[in-house]
Design brief:
The protein is an alpha/beta fold and 388 residues long. It is 35% helix and 15% strand. It folds into 2 domains: 246 residues, 3-Layer(aba) Sandwich (Aspartate Aminotransferase, domain 2); 131 residues, Aspartate Aminotransferase, domain 1 (Alpha-Beta Complex), CATH 3.90.1150. It binds pyridoxal-5'-phosphate. The site of pyridoxal-5'-phosphate (PLP) has 14 residues, from α3.
């Protein structure tokens, strides 16, 4: 692997390509070409250039897959049309009667998928707070996998990946980690013992809120092959142009993550001092219960934070009065966004589950961007003033 991740973000794994046609042979183009084609001509019957039809594979998609595999230090990656397409494809690996243990706090779309689609296909789920509960009592003879996020969306719970991976291995379970919140820049779950990593590439990998994408990365060749079959059959592969947007986004991943993390650290300290804020949940604060685990398993604390206001009215007033910060879903872009999980990302999560996870009408989530931190603070300060 050799190079540091900062360098790998620039020199996008050309040397890793599995197909000789898809290496440095592009007239010296520094920006990887977009192969905007649906199909490929065959030299002769029984011969192929290595690409036949873009649903199966496309050079630009293959390139972004190699890049993401390199960043996660995995053997293979697959690029999907969204994070949810990636997670849906993973669910296709299981059969009726299989049982999965999933983290209690997860992105609302994952909970919706498990509850409304995957369960209908005969797969059972048990929701467990993987950051604080023992897994063993929930494992049955039918359990196949454990699915977590760390930190979780939106409550920022942190799970010890290595410890969970050891438990999963003892019981022959796959450990799947949704690594969207930290990106491969700050956390590499495969190195900590996870079997499969998922990303919403829409977020930090793309980095500019201009495209939707998803990735699965693994070191397990059998899993890689099965997913390759699923992508070819269900047709959820990432388009050439979107693959290119992700390639372009990755070039600045390191600098974006560093700058936004610095902002998030400063913002979390400032928020802690504000009277109308009851609680700040940022895993880079020593007060966060997952702080020590984060220091052990990540190279940074990330750019996401959640806070609790003193009342629903305060939360609504903040959303109404921010000007620079956009009230919008999603995260991981260069702009600072503020989200109201109860009506946005987690609106479809059953009320009792939301309550249990602490997602109340006083909870706001922020994806801190790369603006000047003083401007972000001034904007929030103005919004807070409207409450008093
Ligand atoms: N995983 C996490 C942690 C997310 O936050 C999201 C979306 O917000 C997804 C997966 C789904 O990704 P996408 O919106 O690209 O389908």
């Amino acid at each position: 692997m050799g190079f540091s991740i900062e360098t790998r973000c620039q020199h996008l794994a050309d040397e890793q390509s599995t197909n000789s046609q898809n290496s440095k042979d592009h007239y010296g183009a520094i920006s990887y070409p977009i192969y905007q084609t649906a199909t490929f001509a065959h030299p002769a019957v029984g011969e192929s250039t290595g690409y036949d039809y873009s649903r199966l594979q496309n050079p630009t998609r293959e390139h972004v897959e190699n890049v993401v595999a390199a960043l996660e230090e995995g053997a293979c990656a697959l690029a999907f049309s969204s994070g949810m397409a990636a997670i849906s494809a993973l669910m296709e690996m299981f059969r009726p009667g299989d049982h999965l243990i999933v983290d209690a706090d997860l992105y609302g779309g994952s909970i919706r998928l498990f509850e409304h689609i995957t369960r209908k296909n005969g797969i059972e789920f048990t929701r467990v707070n993987c950051n604080e509960e023992e897994l063993e009592p929930f494992i049955t003879g039918r359990t196949r996998a454990v699915f977590i996020e760390t930190p979780t969306n939106p409550m920022m719970n942190v799970t010890d990946i290595r410890e969970l991976a050891n438990t999963a291995k003892r019981h022959g379970l796959l450990l799947i980690v949704d690594n969207t919140f930290l990106s491969p820049y700050f956390q590499n779950p495969l190195k900590l013992g996870a079997d499969i990593v998922v990303h919403s590439g829409t977020k930090f990998l793309g980095g500019h809120n201009d495209t939707i994408a998803g990735f699965v990365v693994t070191n397990d060749e059998a899993v890689g092959e099965e997913l390759r079959f699923i992508i070819k059959t269900t047709g959820a592969g990432l388009s050439p142009f979107d693959s290119w947007l992700i390639l372009r986004g990755i070039k600045t991943l390191a600098v974006r993550m560093e700058r936004a993390q610095e902002n998030a650290g400063k913002l979390s300290c400032w928020l802690e001092e504000q009277e109308i804020i009851k609680k700040v949940i940022y895993p880079g604060l020593p007060s966060h219960p997952g702080y020590e685990i984060m220091k052990k398993q990540c190279s940074g604390f990330g750019t996401m934070l959640t806070f609790e206001t003193e009342s629903k009215n305060a939360a609504l007033a903040i959303l109404k009065n921010v000007r620079l910060i956009s009230f919008a879903e999603s995260l991981g872009g260069t702009e600072t966004l503020i989200t109201y999980p109860i009506t946005q990302t987690h609106a479809d999560v059953p009320e009792n589950v939301r309550q249990k996870n602490g997602i109340t009408d006083c909870i706001l989530r922020m994806s801190v961007g790369i603006e000047k931190i003083e401007d972000i603070i001034a904007d929030l300060n103005n919004a807070f003033a409207s409450i008093l």
